[in-house]
């Protein structure tokens, strides 16, 4: 009998079925396949799939209809239904991803929230809410990274102070304040470290003077200088 482009619609329906299920809708030897093509319905998608949009059933059924009059009249019509379903799936996925991102953001899991939001904007680059949330998440990630850096610099400063490496300690504290310039605690620690360094330097100068006086035989003068040094730091 005469055939037209609707035969290609059928063939495309077979390809779609195979892509979705990994199985051909009609199988067997040549004559058996021909018999099934003419007389038997294809197995429903639910034979192979459990989690899929049910709208695919009607699309496949229409593409693989035995009667050409019951098939899609054109490839454009076939494509339009697939595009419509794709848009619905995209909207559902975007909604799910946005909900996940909001939950993760509220839980302050900013790294995971950023990953989810990047997936979302890859699907819908024009999604305003996702892009705004991505900005907020990015700011929070940067804040947390700064806080971690400040914490590490403080630890380095404390270790340096304990070993009287005051220049290193001041350097670490200066870097920390550059990262968090409004942190009053950091400012207080920096000032305390500067005072310790001044006292340390002053004690060093006094010890040098005491050594010089002692070497010249002025033990009384040396004793007086050492006592001044001790008054600056009773623990030295």
Fold and architecture overview:
This protein is an all-alpha fold and 236 residues long. Helices cover 75% and strands 0% of the residues. It is rod-shaped, with a radius of gyration of 39 Å. The mean pLDDT is 92.
What's the end-to-end separation, in Å?
109 Å
Biggest β-sheet description: none
**Morphology call:** rod-shaped
Count, helices: 9
How many beta strands in the DSSP annotation? 0
Structural class assignment: mainly alpha
Strand content: under 5%
Unreliable residue runs = none
Average of per-residue pLDDT values: 92
| Topology pattern, helix = H, strand = E | HHHHHHHHH
Q: What is the CA-based Rg, rounded? A: 39 Å
Helix content: over 70%
Quick summary of this structure?
With 236 residues, this protein is mainly alpha-helical.
What secondary-structure arrangement, pairings included, does this model have?
Blueprint: H1 6-21, H2 30-39, H3 55-63, H4 75-106, H5 110-123, H6 128-162, H7 166-179, H8 184-215, H9 219-232
């Amino acid at each position: 009998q005469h055939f037209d482009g609707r035969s290609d619609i059928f063939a495309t329906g077979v390809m779609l079925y195979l892509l979705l299920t990994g199985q051909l809708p009609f199988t067997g030897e040549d004559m058996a396949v021909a018999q099934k093509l003419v007389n038997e319905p294809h197995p429903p998608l639910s034979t192979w799939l459990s989690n899929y949009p049910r709208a695919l059933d009607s699309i496949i059924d229409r593409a693989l209809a035995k009667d050409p009059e019951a098939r899609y009249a054109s490839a454009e019509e076939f494509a339009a239904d697939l595009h419509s379903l794709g848009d619905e799936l995209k909207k559902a996925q975007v909604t799910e991803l946005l909900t996940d991102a909001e939950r993760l953001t509220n839980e302050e899991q900013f790294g995971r929230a950023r990953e989810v939001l990047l997936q979302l904007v890859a699907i819908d680059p024009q999604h305003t809410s996702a892009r705004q949330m991505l900005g907020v998440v990015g700011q929070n990630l940067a804040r947390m990274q700064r806080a971690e850096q400040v914490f590490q610099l403080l630890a380095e400063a404390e270790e340096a102070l304990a070993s009287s490496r005051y220049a290193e300690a001041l350097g670490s504290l200066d870097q920390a304040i550059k990262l968090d310039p409004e942190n009053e605690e950091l400012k207080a620690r920096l000032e305390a470290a500067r005072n310790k360094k001044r006292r340390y330097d002053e004690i060093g100068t006094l010890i040098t003077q005491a050594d010089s006086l002692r070497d010249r035989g002025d033990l009384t003068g040396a004793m007086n200088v050492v006592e001044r040094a001790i008054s600056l730091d009773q623990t030295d």
